[in-house]
Recover the amino acids of this structure.
């Protein structure tokens, strides 16, 4: 079973700042790093680092061939990455003293797909293979259609969330991974009851029930950052906490979570086990600066999971 990740590749310009720049203000950064990023690329790297076979399907500028090479070095199959004569996607990322980020995206090559291109990229995919997608590439409706025709399984991380997400055939997803904000936005897009849903995706039982009713055939995972994650699956709710760690840079933690979760499913682990491993992997990712540089290897995740189960602090 293969994973085809039709996903963004960004060049991340990471500016360390004491605090986020305010409207009308000019602020000097402490440092600048240029690294491989993009939710798609990060998730492919997380899959590869976890030991799962992953073929990335995407586009980047000919001038940024280093990004493709970097993914290859991480162990990603890059045959489906096209080098094109157009600017790459990029992200301008401020990381503050608390390790929080603020991101401005430019879609670039990630927004250059049409139906024919997606068909070509998924030509070799077979029934039972996974299609993984995020919301930084265009032509997602075509990706859904082709994957459905081919009887592939679909994992979707609708980040960054926008209005068009609710129009996609999300009922086809086997796995839907959302953060708290995305969960609230998606639930509200399809909710018609008079009493409003709360903004608290963590504890709003009505919101959980609504998502499960809308997408009964999907495993729905809500990521809660340092508070862990929730799995809504087959009418059950399962919660896990995350280990407490020192936050250096939260960029890419959610992507690490997605890659490790899917990798667990490919290894036939139970959803509950995938949830725990993914939480630990995401927590480790925030202890290192940069999106792809922070993605932990499998052995580090295994050790941290063991330590957590034995009640030791992570990394001791
Ligand atoms: O999820 C983190 C990613 O979001 C960054 O790598 C950046 O490229 C943006 O896409």
């Amino acid at each position: 079973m293969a994973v085809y990740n039709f996903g963004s590749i960004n060049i991340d310009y990471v500016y360390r700042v004491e605090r986020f720049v305010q409207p009308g203000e000019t602020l000097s950064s402490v440092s600048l790093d240029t690294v491989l990023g993009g939710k798609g690329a990060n998730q492919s790297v997380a899959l590869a680092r976890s030991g799962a076979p992953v073929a990335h399907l995407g586009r980047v500028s000919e001038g940024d061939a280093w990004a493709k090479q970097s993914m290859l070095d991480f162990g990603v199959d890059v045959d489906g990455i096209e080098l094109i004569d157009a600017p790459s996607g990029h992200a301008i990322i401020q990381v503050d003293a608390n390790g929080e980020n603020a991101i401005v995206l430019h879609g670039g090559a990630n927004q250059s797909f049409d139906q024919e291109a997606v068909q070509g990229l998924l030509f070799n995919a077979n029934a039972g293979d996974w299609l993984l997608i995020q919301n930084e590439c265009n032509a997602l409706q075509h990706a859904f259609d082709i994957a459905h025709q081919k009887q592939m399984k679909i994992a979707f991380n609708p980040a960054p969330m926008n209005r068009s997400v609710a129009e996609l055939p999300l009922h086809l997803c086997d796995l839907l991974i959302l953060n708290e904000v995305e969960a609230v936005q998606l639930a509200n897009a399809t909710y018609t009851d008079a009493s409003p849903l709360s903004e608290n995706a963590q504890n709003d039982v009505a919101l959980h029930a609504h998502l499960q009713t809308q997408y009964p055939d999907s495993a729905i995972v809500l990521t809660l950052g340092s508070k862990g994650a929730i799995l809504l699956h087959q009418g059950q709710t399962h919660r896990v906490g995350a280990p407490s760690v020192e936050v250096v840079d939260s960029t890419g933690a959610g992507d690490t979570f997605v890659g490790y979760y899917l990798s667990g499913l490919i290894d036939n682990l139970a959803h509950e086990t995938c949830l725990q491993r993914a939480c630990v992997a995401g927590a480790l990712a925030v202890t290192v600066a940069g999106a792809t540089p922070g993605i932990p290897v499998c052995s580090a995740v295994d050790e941290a999971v063991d330590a957590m189960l034995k009640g030791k602090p992570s990394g001791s």
